[in-house]
Specification:
The chain is mainly β and 146 residues long. 0% of the residues lie in helices and 46% in strands. The protein has strands spanning 5-7, 18-21, 30-38, 46-51, 65-69, 73-76, 80-84, 94-100, 105-110, 113-119, 128-133, 139-143. The strands form two sheets. A six-stranded antiparallel sheet has the order 1-12-3-8-9-10, with no helix packed on it. The radius of gyration is 14 Å and the shape is globular. The two termini are 13 Å apart.
C-alpha cells in the first residue's frame, strides 16, 4: 500500500484554512478511507467529511456537506450543527470515513469507534472526500482503513 501526506505549510497563502477535496467523487457503492492526524502546535481545528461540491467550505449554508471536526463539532447539509459528537481529536488519531452511496449513509470513526452517523442523499450527488486544515504545521496522512 502507499500513503500520501497533506501538509499545511507557511507562506504563499493568505487564508488560514486550507480546504482539499478528493479528485474522485462517488455516486454509487461503498467507499472507505482513513487519515492519521498530525496536529499543529496549538491543536487548531481539522475538519474531515464529504461534500457534493469541490467549492464549498465549512460553515457555508449553500452546499450539502457532512462531517466532523477535531473539536467534536458535527456538520450536516451545510454549516455547523453546533453540538459535540464525541471526544476531541488529537495528534496521531486515526479518522475513518465510510460512505454507502446506495444505502444513503455516512459514518465517521475516531480510532475505530463510531463517532457519527448521518443520512445522505442518494442518486443525486457525487460525494467527494473533503479535508480542512486550519493551522500551519498540521497534516493528514492517508493510511489503510482499519
Amino acid at each position: 500500500h502507499s500513503t500520501a501526506t497533506l501538509h499545511h505549510q507557511p507562506g504563499g497563502r493568505t487564508a488560514e484554512q486550507m480546504n482539499v477535496y478528493g479528485m474522485r467523487g462517488y455516486k454509487h457503492g461503498r467507499q472507505r478511507w482513513a487519515v492519521q492526524l498530525g496536529m499543529g502546535a496549538s491543536h487548531t481545528w481539522i475538519g474531515i467529511g464529504i461534500s457534493q461540491s469541490k467549492i464549498c467550505s465549512y460553515g457555508e449554508e449553500i452546499e450539502p456537506d457532512v462531517g466532523a471536526s477535531s473539536f467534536g463539532d458535527v456538520f450536516a447539509c451545510g454549516g455547523d450543527n453546533g453540538y459535540a459528537s464525541g471526544p476531541a481529536w488529537t495528534h496521531g488519531d486515526v479518522i475513518t470515513v465510510e460512505i454507502d452511496c446506495d444505502g444513503g449513509l455516512f459514518r465517521l470513526y475516531h480510532n475505530g469507534t463510531i463517532q457519527q452517523t448521518n443520512a445522505i442523499q442518494t442518486g443525486i450527488y457525487e460525494w467527494f472526500p473533503w479535508f480542512n486544515l486550519h493551522e500551519t504545521g498540521s497534516s493528514l496522512t492517508l493510511v489503510p482503513p482499519p
